[in-house]
């Protein structure tokens, strides 16, 4: 089995929860698995390669580096014959001078080769016998040759890169709703690209379409309608072709902020001494830190206040409300006070308690924050829903 380096196994980025995988990404994954477990094919090697070789023995025309000897940037040409397989009719091989193999001498190598069971068997035209090299296909643009006999006058290790390689795929793509447009960005992870190609698939479409060929590493999509969702991926390209695609990112064009549509109890309504309040929104929401954008857990926000605030009496003391939980990402259940335990009740007969839903703490899933605070009034009667609590709560 040929071994691949971990870096060559990456499609582009690590996948995260919520990522969308397109058919082309799956094809890249299957292609990588096939290269890991399959047999190297003749078409994987045909082309022009730039090779660097290392030997533990002194070789004519090579450069000494410590106890090793090297030749860098040797050109290797592998050409097909009239047959579909080199095993049926050997393919041609030629090199620059010095050659990366040092087959008896360092002059340019002209001969034939055969690919057999992940081994490259080469023979110079002027010689009577050939030599077998272990072959690893690292990627579609790199292969490595190993010759284990360290006492020989041949290279011990050769690494060859295609001179017609395509660039690396962009990484860290992101798609952000900006209310009137979608902003797509990515990281340029290549040094030899000519530019980038942006592909998009809108809601209801079955295939990705090329929407932009550009040199900038950001793309602005102003063609979506309100509420329309689009998937994007990006490729780098140069004169040799396109890179693998980036991960797919998704965004929905949304300019409408969430609003409060109902509360329990309703405005000026009354609740029991053990009840909680429920606030329902027009769409799914999330709680955010208004001034601490790097904090993902609202309970860790450094900002004062909270998503919902009210002051209520328990045992004669003022208590500030805290968030209880988000129910189905569309409702907030508010337990009436911080520090209220299961054995505590609100004081009876409290009226005109103002509950404030604070706009800076609440946004929808597309990043739109509430446009204004929402307030309503609640009252507490003297009803005890569970007379045994306390003490048996």
Mean pLDDT: 83
> Tell me, what's the shape?
elongated
Tell me the Rg in angstroms.
34 Å
* Largest sheet composition: 8 strands, antiparallel, barrel
CATH class (first level) name of one domain: Mainly Beta
Strand content: 35-45%
CATH architecture descriptor of one domain: Beta Barrel
Number of helices: 2
Q: What fraction, in percent, of the residue positions are helical?
A: under 10%
CATH topology term of one domain = Lipocalin
* Order of strands in the sheet with most strands: 1-3-4-5-6-7-8-9
Structural class: mainly beta
Q: Ranges with pLDDT <50 over ≥5 residues?
A: 1-9
Structure explained in plain terms:
By secondary structure, the chain is mainly β. Among the domains are: 39-162, Lipocalin; 260-380, Immunoglobulin-like. It contains two helices and 29 strands. The protein has helices spanning 6-9, 23-37; strands at residues 47-55, 63-65, 68-79, 91-95, 110-116, 119-124, 131-139, 142-146, 157-162, 171-177, 182-187, 195-202, 209-214, 218-221, 229-238, 241-242, 249-252, 260-264, 269-271, 277-281, 285-287, 308-309, 311-314, 317-320, 322-327, 331-335, 350-357, 362-364, 374-380. It starts with 5 loop residues before the first helix and ends in a 13-residue tail after the last strand.
Key words describing this protein structure:
single chain; 393 residues; mainly beta; Lipocalin; Immunoglobulin-like; eight-stranded antiparallel β-barrel; five-stranded antiparallel sheet; 29 strands; 42% strand
């Amino acid at each position: 089995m040929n071994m691949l380096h971990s870096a060559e196994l990456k499609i582009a980025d690590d996948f995260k929860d919520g990522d969308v995988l397109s058919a082309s990404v799956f094809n890249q994954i299957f292609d990588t698995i096939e290269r890991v477990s399959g047999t190297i094919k003749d078409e994987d090697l045909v082309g022009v390669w730039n090779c660097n070789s290392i030997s533990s023995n002194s070789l004519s025309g090579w450069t000494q580096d410590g106890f090793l000897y090297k030749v860098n940037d040797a050109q290797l040409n592998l050409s097909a014959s009239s047959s579909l397989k080199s095993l049926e009719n050997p393919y041609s091989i030629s090199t620059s001078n010095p050659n990366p193999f040092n087959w008896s001498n360092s002059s340019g190598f002209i001969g034939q080769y055969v690919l057999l069971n992940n081994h490259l068997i080469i023979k110079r035209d002027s010689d009577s016998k050939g030599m077998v090299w272990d072959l690893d296909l690292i990627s579609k643009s790199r292969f490595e040759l190993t010759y284990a006999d360290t006492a020989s006058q041949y290279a011990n290790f050769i690494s060859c890169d295609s001179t017609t390689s395509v660039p690396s795929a962009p990484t860290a793509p992101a798609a952000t709703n900006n209310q009137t447009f979608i902003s797509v960005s990515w990281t340029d992870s290549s040094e030899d690209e000519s530019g980038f190609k942006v592909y998009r698939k809108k809601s209801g479409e079955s295939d990705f379409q090329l929407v932009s060929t550009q040199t900038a590493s950001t793309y602005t999509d102003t063609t979506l309608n309100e509420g329309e969702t689009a998937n994007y991926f990006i490729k780098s390209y140069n004169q040799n072709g396109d890179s693998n695609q980036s991960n797919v990112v998704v965004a929905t064009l949304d300019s409408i902020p969430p609003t409060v549509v109902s509360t329990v109890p309703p405005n000026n309504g009354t609740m029991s001494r053990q009840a909680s309040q429920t606030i329902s929104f027009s769409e799914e929401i999330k709680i955010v830190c208004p001034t601490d954008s790097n904090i993902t857990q609202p309970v860790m926000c450094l900002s004062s206040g909270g998503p919902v605030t009210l002051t209520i009496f328990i045992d004669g003391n003022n208590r500030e409300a805290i968030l209880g939980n988000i129910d189905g990402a569309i409702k907030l259940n508010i337990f009436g006070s911080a520090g209220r335990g299961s054995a505590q009740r609100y004081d009876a007969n409290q009226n005109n308690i103002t509950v404030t839903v604070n706009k800076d703490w609440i946004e929808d899933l597309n990043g739109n924050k509430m446009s204004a605070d929402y307030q309503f009034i609640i009252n507490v009667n003297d009803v005890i829903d569970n007379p045994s609590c306390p003490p048996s709560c």
